[in-house]
């Protein structure tokens, strides 16, 4: 039997080694991108900050193992709240416990500042954690404190401008759910930010139970894709909300919307100076749940108000009634599937909530996180440190990590949203995705 032996030349061996090294490098890159190694502090935040708390969020974010056990994780935020309220130097204590960016994270974000208006009344630690993850030094912030809040809470929040030169605080009306006080409090911050000499491009409203789904950089790219259009929800106005104003014509036709909105600066400049908008506010003050009637009544009457970035909401209502198409049920960054992306919220009549329903709205839990982080909306409503706090902390940690380690993000799908295309001059019969109009956030 003859045994054949094949001898590789040195040059051939070097070429094989080179290919093997390249293959291994590519494989390692793919593995590290698709499944990040477990860590309790992937953003390398110093341990004195609350968000650096020991909590391995990778199983939750990657949805790789049974994560039900995280439902029982507890967070003693009362310790930090006591520390804050008893502090003699609140700025020092805040900056020792909460991580705030000291400079813009990119040139793109620096050139496209945003504005945020808050309405808060309780949960000091949660409010400061939320503020810290939304905070960027180039942005503008206004925090309105509902007069319902405790004296200690008001006193503390009112001192925040001493710690941040881009933050304004005010005490608003005492309000109950469904009353005009909520809208008035939100509008006062919106008006302040609009009249302020600051070059912000888009405004967003936030409640004390919101968290971001997108990083500040991703929000900037989404706002650029909106191209000056108003992003607000569209629903028919409920007749029972007229209350004592039934039979009295409003200044413009009324539409129902969600409280959250993405409003371009040009539109804001028009709204706060409009006599007709002031008349609309006065009219809504006598109606029920006026905070869900303002933004689309202003932004959805293009022929009557001429607000920059506005559209004809009645055309959308007409299309829903007459178009024979099925709505797109999935929502992702690459296929938005909707024309409203300001806020993600789940109502009790819509789908399962893995946290807890309160006042018909889902307070999200751990098992909701894997879906939430893939959704296209800007923020999610609601999270609470009282309900499965690991969900709150892990979403915060994930956004911080992505802020410091940006992933490839293309906002082209947002430019295909129907209201954006209508603003850009397309007719309703020429829309790329007319089926994206078929559902509002109140769908049943």
From TrEMBL:
Q: Which Pfam families match?
A: Branch
The Gene Ontology terms for molecular function here are: acetylglucosaminyltransferase activity
What membrane topology term does the record carry? Single-pass type II membrane protein
Extent of the signal sequence: none
Coiled-coil intervals, chain numbering: none
Which key words are in the record? Answer: Glycoprotein, Glycosyltransferase, Membrane, Signal-anchor, Transferase, Transmembrane, Transmembrane helix
Recorded GO CC terms: membrane
Pathway(s) annotated for this protein in UniProt: Protein modification; protein glycosylation
Q: Where in the cell is it found?
A: Membrane
Xref: InterPro entries: Glyco_trans_14
Q: Which family does it belong to?
A: Belongs to the glycosyltransferase 14 family.
Q: PANTHER family attached here?
A: CORE-2_I-BRANCHING ENZYME, GLYCOSYLTRANSFERASE 14 FAMILY MEMBER
| The protein's name in its UniProt record | Core-2/I-Branching enzyme
The species is Cylicocyclus nassatus
Q: What is the lineage of its organism?
A: Eukaryota, Metazoa, Ecdysozoa, Nematoda, Chromadorea
């Amino acid at each position: 039997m003859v045994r054949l032996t094949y001898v590789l030349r040195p040059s051939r061996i070097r070429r094989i080694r080179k290919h093997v090294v390249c293959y291994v490098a590519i494989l390692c890159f793919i593995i590290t991108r698709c499944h990040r190694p477990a860590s309790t502090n992937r953003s390398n935040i110093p341990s004195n900050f609350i968000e650096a708390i020991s909590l391995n969020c990778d199983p939750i974010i990657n949805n790789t193992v049974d994560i039900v056990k995280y439902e029982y994780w507890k967070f003693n935020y009362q310790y930090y709240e006591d520390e804050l309220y008893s502090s003699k130097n609140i700025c020092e204590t805040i900056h020792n416990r909460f991580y705030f960016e000291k400079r813009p994270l990119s040139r793109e974000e620096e050139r496209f500042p945003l504005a945020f208006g808050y309405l808060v009344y309780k949960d000091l630690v949660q409010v400061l954690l939320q503020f810290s993850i939304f905070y960027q030094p180039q942005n503008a912030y206004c925090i309105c404190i509902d007069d319902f809040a405790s004296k200690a809470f008001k006193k503390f929040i009112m001192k925040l401008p001493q710690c941040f030169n881009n933050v304004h605080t005010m005490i608003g009306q005492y309000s109950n759910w469904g009353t005009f006080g909520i809208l008035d409090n939100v509008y006062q911050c919106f008006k302040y930010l609009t009249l302020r000499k600051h070059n912000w491009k888009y405004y967003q409203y936030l409640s004390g139970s919101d968290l971001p789904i997108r990083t500040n950089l991703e929000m900037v790219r989404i706002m650029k894709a909106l191209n000056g259009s108003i992003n607000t929800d569209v629903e028919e106005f409920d007749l029972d909300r007229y209350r004592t104003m039934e039979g009295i014509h409003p200044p413009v036709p009324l539409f129902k919307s969600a409280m959250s909105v993405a409003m371009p600066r040009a539109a804001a400049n028009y709204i706060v100076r409009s006599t007709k908008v002031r008349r609309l506010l006065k009219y809504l003050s006598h109606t029920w749940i006026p905070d869900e009637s303002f933004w689309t009544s202003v932004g959805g009457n293009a022929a009557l108000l001429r607000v920059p970035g506005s559209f004809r909401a009645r055309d959308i209502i007409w299309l829903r009634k007459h178009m024979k198409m099925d709505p797109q049920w999935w929502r992702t960054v690459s296929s938005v599937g909707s024309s409203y992306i300001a806020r993600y919220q789940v109502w009790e009549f819509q789908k399962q909530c893995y946290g807890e329903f309160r006042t018909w709205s889902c307070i999200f839990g751990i098992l909701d996180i894997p879906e939430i982080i893939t959704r296209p909306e800007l923020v999610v409503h609601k999270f609470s440190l009282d309900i499965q706090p690991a969900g709150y902390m892990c979403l915060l940690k994930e956004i911080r990590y992505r802020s410091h380690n940006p992933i490839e993000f293309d906002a082209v799908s947002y430019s295909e949203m129907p209201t954006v295309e209508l603003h850009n001059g397309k007719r309703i019969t020429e829309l790329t995705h007319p089926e994206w109009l078929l559902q509002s956030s109140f769908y049943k």
